[in-house]
Each structure stands twice: as C-alpha cells, then as structure tokens.
Amino acid sequence: MTFAYQTAASVAEASKASLAPDAKLIAGGQSLLGTIKLGLAMPEALIDLGAIADLKGIKVEPGKITIGAMTTHAEVAASAEVQKAIPALAELAGHIGDRQVRNRGTIGGSLANNDPAACYPAGALGLGATIHTDRRSIAADDFFVGIYTTALEEGEIITSVSFPVPAKAGWQKFKQPASRFSLVGVFVSKSPSGEVRVAVTGAGAGGVFRATVVEQALAANWSQAATSGVTVDADGLNTDLHGSAEYRAALIPVLAGRAVAGS
After folding, report:
1. E strand spans, the chain
2. β-pair partners for 175
3. In this structure, is the dihedral angle defined by the CA atoms of residues 115, 117, 119 and 125, taken in order, positive or negative?
4. Domain boundary at 103, 130, 164, which?
5. In the prediction, which pLDDT does 66 show?
6. CATH number of the structural domain spanning residue 35
7. In this structure, are 88 and 158 located in the same domain?
8. SUPFAM superfamilies annotated for this entry (predicted)?
C-alpha cells in the first residue's frame, strides 16, 4: 500500500493534519504498523509525532511525576526519577514487549491505542493518573472507554501523563509467552491518604477495569493475605485459547496479592 508521510513540527500541526480523511497519527508505531501489515488499517496519510520535542521527557514535582507522551518505555524503565518515585511503574515499563518494542513504543501511543491487554492502561488506572492533551486534562477513570476506544476526540493528541506518587504500589503480570501481552495484569496502589486502587488488564472483555472487590479487601487490610479469600466474578471476562474467564477471575486476586507483597 502507499500513503503520504509527514513529520509534524508541532502538536498543533499534527492535530490539524490528523483531521484529513484516513489520516493516522504515529508515535512509536508498535501497534499501528502491525495492524497495517495485517491489512486491518489502510491509512492514506501518516503524521509522525517523533520530532516534537515538547512531547518528550520526565518531570518530577512535589507529589507527582509527569511523563511526556513520546517518552519510550525504555526511557521510563531506566529513569532514576521514576524508579525512586514509583518503582512499580518503572517495573511495568521495563517488561513491556521485548527490547525493540521498549525502545520504540511510547507511553502516549500505548494509552491512545488502549489495547485490552496492554500494560500502561493498568498503570494509569491503577495510579489514578491524569492524561493531558492539547485540549484538556482527563482523569484515567474517564479516559478508557472500551476496547481500542478512549475519550480522545478527533484531532486530540495526548501530550503528557501525570502520575500521583503513591505510598505503596505494585505490579504483577501473567503474560502470554509469545506476544508478552498480559493474559492478566494487575496494578495496585495505596495513596498517601489511604485510597486503594486495583486495575486489571488482559482479563476484561471491555478492556482495563478496576477490581472493586479486591480494592475493598485491601482497603481493610493492605496485605497479600487479604486477597486470598477474595472471589472475582467471571462474568464479563475473556475466554480464549489461552484461558477461560474463570481462570482469569481466579488469577486476579492471586496477582493482586503478589503485587501488594512486592509494593
């Protein structure tokens, strides 16, 4: 297939160009190029965000850490600032895909694509992150709408993501060996004020979600033992050749407990 290719010099330029018929924004390209190869996407134009310096970098402020949308997974994993403030987020980033994917894939691209088994949506939802765009700021609870669907509007571009620094946080991923996507991934956090969040990826038919029953157990007792008696309803979870809905439901509290133990 043939398509026009444009390297955008600014967010405003990229946003305007993306409104053209059958135009697609490209960040790291780890999701988009795969769908093009499979014939599932046939864009007439690609707008590359890679040259926009304002979309890159990591900034630490009191109580939060902000990561530019074009910052790669490898950069997040290697960041001393992220490792110190939210080690579970650095751990998550360091085990996305393989080395090639981590050095090309970006946090903004992952969140915008919202793959139902991707890791970053669980990290954002599990930490109560805020996704900043060129138009507004969106709470993670409102950002993830469904499989491959977010609250982003036409032409709207993620510019950065702000993560509040938790008192405790942990991440556990039970991966599909070939793709390294999550069969089930669980991110847990406890805020300085005591709010508990548990986000699950890979298991839900509608994409990433919060496991409220696990949150309630951990709010009462932040310990691995607290998750051992929790039963997650299998209704609405995925069943495929890798595992049934019941199998995934059983994995959620197990992985949540391990994440708490490592927090």
Report:
1. 4-7, 23-26, 45-48, 58-61, 64-68, 130-133, 137-139, 144-146, 149-150, 158-164, 168-175, 182-190, 196-201, 209-210
2. 182
3. positive
4. 164
5. 98
6. 3.30.43.10
7. yes
8. CO dehydrogenase flavoprotein C-terminal domain-like (SSF55447), FAD-binding/transporter-associated domain-like (SSF56176)
Residue 213 near residue 232, CB atoms below 8 Å: yes
Q: Could you tell me which of 176, 164, 166 has the C-alpha nearest to residue 218?
A: 166
Residue type, 205: A
Residues 54, 11 contacting (CB under 8 angstroms): yes
Say yes or no: 67 and 18 in one domain: no
What is the domain count for the chain?
Answer: 3
Contacts of 31 (CB under 8 A, 6+ apart): 109, 110, 113, 115
> Residue 167: beta bridge partners?
none
How do residues 14-52 score in pLDDT, each as one tens digit? 999 999 988 889 898 887 777 777 777 788 888 999 999
Is residue 206 pLDDT above 80, yes or no?
A: yes
Degrees to nearest 5, angle at CA 180 with 55 and 162: 30
Maximum pairwise Cα distance, the chain: 57
Do 37 and 65 fall within a single domain? no
Which range of residues forms the domain containing residue 22? 4-48
| Closest to 90 in 3D by CA, of 103, 104, 73 | 73
